[in-house]
Design a protein that fits this description.
This protein has 7 helices and 6 strands, in the order βαβααββααβαβα. It is of the alpha/beta class. The chain has one domain: Rossmann fold (3-Layer(aba) Sandwich). Helix 1 packs across helix 7 and helix 4 crosses helix 6. The chain is globular. Bound molecules: flavin mononucleotide. Flavin mononucleotide binds next to helix 2 and helix 4. Keywords: Flavoprotein, FMN, Lyase, Prenyltransferase, Transferase. This is Flavin prenyltransferase UbiX. Belongs to the UbiX/PAD1 family.
């Protein structure tokens, strides 16, 4: 089975990451390798009612963000890529600078050097020029920068409609095209 790495970091919008885990899991297409940063755990407790263990159960493998010795630290471990959702500015900066002091940043750096798919779902507003420059450099290196900006052509009725549509579009970026995604028809 193909493998995908998912990183949750401490930006607002952890619900996107949780929902992405649900959708990928129910597709039965990918083995999920999950890392949740310490700040993401804090945001999960502040923004959701979802216990951490229930989130971790959605993945096939869960790693500590401090565990640099895990398999996903190595390019020899073949994956289809990595999605960081939500992606904090701190993690964005770490990845751009190859400042590999934690597993999320190291795994993303490996995905970039191996020229695999890296999708960074940045969440901050407004951006200053430094944020934009980090994103520019990451784009040059082949990452997809996917700010968590909702779409409305799907006529959402509730927050979960907005979240789901964004998650399906994130998955499009990594070649996971699912039927439930609402496609704009003009
Ligand atoms: C409730 C809450 C919301 C936050 N929202 C954001 C955000 O939207 N974007 C961001 O870059 N940082 C945000 N932060 C700050 C990050 O959590 C902080 O920079 C942290 O060091 C990121 O660490 P990580 O990238 O290792 O998860 C938020 C923090 C809290 C407590």
């Amino acid at each position: 089975m193909k493998k995908i790495i998912v990183g949750l970091t401490g930006a607002s919008g952890v619900v996107y990451g949780i929902r992405l885990l649900d959708i990928v899991r129910s597709s039965n297409l990918f083995e999920i390798h999950l890392i949740i940063s310490e700040s993401a755990k804090k945001v999960i407790s502040l923004e959701t009612n979802c216990p951490l263990n229930q989130i971790e159960e959605k993945a096939d493998f869960v790693y500590s963000n401090q565990d640099q010795s895990s398999v996903i630290s190595s390019g020899s471990f073949i994956t289809s890529g990595m999605i960081v959702v939500p992606c904090s500015i701190k993690t964005l900066s770490g990845i751009e600078n190859s400042y590999n002091d934690c597993l999320i940043v190291r795994a993303a750096d490996v995905v970039l050097k191996e020229k695999r798919n890296l999708v960074l779902c940045v969440r901050e507003t407004p951006f200053h020029l430094g944020h934009i420059k980090l994103m520019e450099e990451l784009l040059k290196r082949g990452a997809v920068v996917f700010p968590l900006i909702p779409s409305f052509y799907n006529k959402p009725n509730c927050i979960s409609d907005i979240v789901d549509q964004t998650v399906y579009r994130i998955l499009d970026q990594i070649g996971i095209f699912l039927e439930n995604s609402i496609r704009y028809k003009g």
